[in-house]
Amino acid sequence: RIRREEELPVYERLGDVRERAVTQGKIADVLQARGELDEALRIRREEELPVYERLGDVRERAVTQGKIADVLQARGELDEALRIYQEAVLPACQRLGLAREVLIFRANIGILYLKRGATGDREKALELLNLALQDSQRLRLPEAQQIAEIIRWVRASPDSLASPS
Predict the structure, then answer these.
(1) Which residues of 70-99 are buried (b: 16+ CB within 10 A; e: fewer)?
(2) Directed axis angle between helix 99-116 and helix 121-138, to 10°?
(3) What is the spatial distance between Cα 86 and Cα 81, in angstroms, rounded to a whole number?
(4) How many whole angstroms from its chain centre is CA 11?
(5) How far is 145 from 18, CA to CA, in rounded Å?
(6) Cβ distance 68 to 80 under 8 Å?
(7) How many other β-carbons are positioned within 10 Å of the β-carbon of residue 12?
(8) Which residues contact 113 (CB under 8 A, 6 or more apart)?
(9) What's this model's pTM, rounded to 2 decimal places?
(10) CA-to-CA distance for 129 and 57, rounded, in angstroms?
(11) Measured CA angle at 105 (ends 101, 107), to 5 deg
(12) What is the mean pLDDT of residues 83-111?
């Protein structure tokens, strides 16, 4: 309420489209956390993303698309979430040279494959998770341990694709 009634009007008066989009994103974060996924998705697609596209902000566009994919995943729309991650988010992070984000999105895509559980998804997931593990170890990132645990879990439970705890 505060962001909508007090913060947004300030940015609108100032004509600050970027800060207005950032605030819209924060509103969408709250809505998503409260389970109001339809409205969060609408804001991200209609209010936030178009601003970053007009500004030519490749990084914020990729981040917002990743958040759109997160909402879709939460709604159970795994195929569309996978498509966005693979066709928009991951390539943008690769072009920008964001090594940490690339490995995290590879791992997230792998986990999405596990959740989807279609034929061949387990193998795709392991391939992406192994790439993410190699990169995280090379960069000495703390995510390496978590990714290694996920890989161990997947290898230990070949017939089960339920989420690890």
Answers:
(1) bbbbeeebbeebbebbbebbbebbeeeeee
(2) 160
(3) 9
(4) 26
(5) 36
(6) no
(7) 13
(8) 82, 121, 122, 124, 125, 128
(9) 0.85
(10) 28
(11) 120
(12) 95
Q: Which of 96, 91, 42 is nearest to 67 (CA)?
A: 42
Residue with tokens 């960069």: 139
Distances in whole angstroms, Cα of residue 145 to Cα of each of 8, 10, 68, 103, 124: 41, 44, 27, 13, 20
Q: In this predicted model, what pLDDT tens digit does every residue of 2-37 receive, in sequence order?
A: 888 888 889 989 999 999 999 999 999 999 999 999
Whole-number Å distance between alpha carbons of 17 and 11:
7
How many angstroms separate the CA atoms of 35 and 102, rounded? Answer: 27
Residues in the chain: 165
Contacts of 125 (CB under 8 A, 6+ apart): 110, 111, 113, 114, 154
CA–CA separation, 24 and 42 (whole Å): 11
Q: Which amino acid is at 45?
A: R
Q: Give residue-wise pLDDT tens across range 84-93.
A: 999 999 999 9
Q: How far apart are CA 10 and CA 47, in angstroms?
A: 16
